[in-house]
Structure formats: C-alpha cells, structure tokens
Amino acid sequence: MKSNLVLVGLMASAAFFTLTGYELIRSSATVLFKAAYGAENLPVVMALMPVVMFAGVWGYGALLTRFGPRRTLRITTIAAAVLMLLCYWALQLEQRWVTAVLFLLKEFYVVLLIEQYWSYINSRLDQDTAKRFNGPITGLAGLGSVVGGVLVAKLAIPLGTENLVLLAAMALIPAALVSNTAYRWFGEPTDVHEGPAAETFSEGVGWHFVKSNPRLLALLAIVVSSQIIAAVLDFKFQGLLSATFNGDVDAETAFQGQFWSYLNAVAVAAQFILTPILLTAVALRWVHLLLPIAHFTLIAWAIFEPSLWSVGAAFFLFKVFDYSVFRGAKELVYLPLGFQERFRAKEFIDVFGYRTSKGGSSLIIATLQKGGVVMSHYYLWIALAMASLWMVLVFPLTQKRDGE
Questions:
Q1: pLDDT at 40
Q2: pLDDT digits over 261-281, tens only?
Q3: Which residue ranges make up each domain of the chain?
Q4: What's the distance, Cα to Cα, between the start and end of the chain in Å?
Q5: Which of 215, 220, 224, 227 lies closest to 284, judged by CA?
Q6: Which of 148, 163, 290, 322 could bond 20 through an S-S bridge, CB–CB 3.0 to 4.6 Å?
Q7: CATH number of 2-185+213-398
C-alpha cells in the first residue's frame, strides 16, 4: 500500500506540473490565434489536427518500440518544452503564423504526456486499488490546472499573453524530473515485452490492438463523439467571448484563465469526492450512462436559451466530467488489459482519437463555412446529436464478455 501511495504521488505530481503548464498555454495560444486570424478560423486550424495527431502517435509508437516507456516519456517531454521555446522565440519576432503552430502544439502535447502517466499507473495498480486511487490521482493532477488557471488570470495583463508560453515550457522541467523518478524507483512495466513486437504499422500506432477488442472499439467511438461535443461547444463559447471582449487580448486571456481556474477547482472537488463514490458504489454502466444524459440536458437548455452563460455552463459541465468521472471510469476499461493495449491502444484512443475527432469535425465545419454555411447556428445541435449517440454506445462498452 505504501509503495502504491508513493508511485501514485509521483505520477500525479508529474501530471500536476504538466497541467499547470497546459493552463498557461491553453488560454494564451487560443487568444493569440484568434487575435491573428479570428475566432471564425478556429475550425480551420483544428482541421489540421488529424495530420499532427497521426504523425505524433506514429512517432510515439516508434519511440516506444525502440526505447521503451521510460525513455520515450523523457524524450517527448523534452521535445514539447523545446518546441514551446521555439514558438516563444518566433512570437518575439512577430511571426503571426506561429500562433497556429502553438495552437496545434498545446492540443497535442498535453494528452500525449498525460496518457503516458496513466499508462504507467495502469501497469502498477490492480482493479480494486484503482477504484480507490483514480479519483485522488486526477484530483491531485487537477490541482495543477487550478494553479495554472489562477496564474493566467493574475499574470496575463501584467506580463502579457505571449510570456505565458515561456512559463508553460518551464513547467515541464519538474514534470520530467518527477516522472523519471517514478520510473527509477519502480522500474519499467514487467510485461513490457509481452506479445509480439510492434513490427507492422498498425501495431506501432495501436490500431491493431483496438480493432481486435470490441470494448476498445466502443470506447474509441465514445471518445470521438464526446470530443466532437467538446469541439463544437468550444467553438460556440469562443465566438461569444470574442464578441464580448472585442479584441482586448490580455483582458480576454485573463477572463479565460479565471474561467478555467473555477472549472478546474470544481473538477478537483469532483475527482476527490464524486468520482471515488461513483466508481465504488455504482455499477460502471450507470456511471458511463450518467455522463451523456447530463450533457444532453444542459445542451438542450443552451439551445432553447442561447447565451454566453448557458453555453458556458454546458461547456463547463462537459469539462468537469471529462476531467473527473469520465477519466476515472475510462481508465478502468484499460486496467485488466495487457501492455500493448495499455501503452499502444490507449495512446491511439486517448491521444489520436481525442484530438483527431476534433480535427475531423473541424475539417467538415471549415469546409461548410467556406461554402457559405453559418455553422455557428448548428454547433449546439451537433453537440446534442453526439450526446445521443454517446448514450447508445455505453451499452456495447459495458457489455460483459465471455469469461468475465
């Protein structure tokens, strides 16, 4: 038990620093891009995400095959920090195009690093231990999001939005040190060489292991539908914010920092209190079903009473549940699986699936916008449809298999 606490504490601390940095770059990158190209072009840059994600997950798979989990985590963490520093340097040279690079980078690096932390945790905890610890793990990590949001709210105006990018890069230094300490003390996963080596392309990116498991296919479909909800709610919310602040970049960044700090504080409370209660006292199927029902309800309210506050509330609730209950419930799906599913299939679903679904939907939205369709009128209806699909997908996800 004591060793589990130390392991969990180290990896949760790594996630704490990573998420602190992410909050610093999330708001700043979004506002800088909108200032350069307008909120209406957010779907355009997001449409590039599938290419970035596919290349990134393939690169991750290649690194994992060659170097193993520990060195792969170290390499990807350092690479993320270096890319942020290069983007910061380009911003100082007033290179407007780098705002798109920064936007894509912040979407990719955080999920890549966080999912590697979880892959390692899932390799060390059993099912019962995970039910007790998954909530507190996400809670401690989520405190980093709260701290980062508060820093954005307090520092955006006195320091300027661009300088927050530099702070985000610096936050990855302690994250790298702490996560490497966990590997040094507890070692690589014992089943790292389980099964055949990743010799084919589909095995390397993780798709081979997803397509052979019906439960993982259902989880991938849920992730895709949920992240389409996230994308369209975000687009709607960002458009309303741009209209409200009318080009005041630092003031909007500060507001977004405050919004995310409040959101993350609620998510942390849910991680420490709501998630452990639900995962230990309620059947997993009902936990998974609760989420799309709650989202459906608030999105329907936003459709019938559209405003910054109703859309913000729907987006707020989605992110709170995504960071707490959904995270904890989702990780239980991976826990009984082998190394290849926990390290390769998981990255395919939770990195490639998460961000590519946003990018794919954004490509469709951007294309329709170029054709003259005012897509902002349909964002909430798309979210409602995806929440409905999510409800249906819960049943194949939680269906018992032979031998269970």
A1: 81
A2: 888 889 888 877 888 888 888
A3: 2-185+213-398
A4: 27
A5: 215
A6: 148
A7: 1.20.1250.20
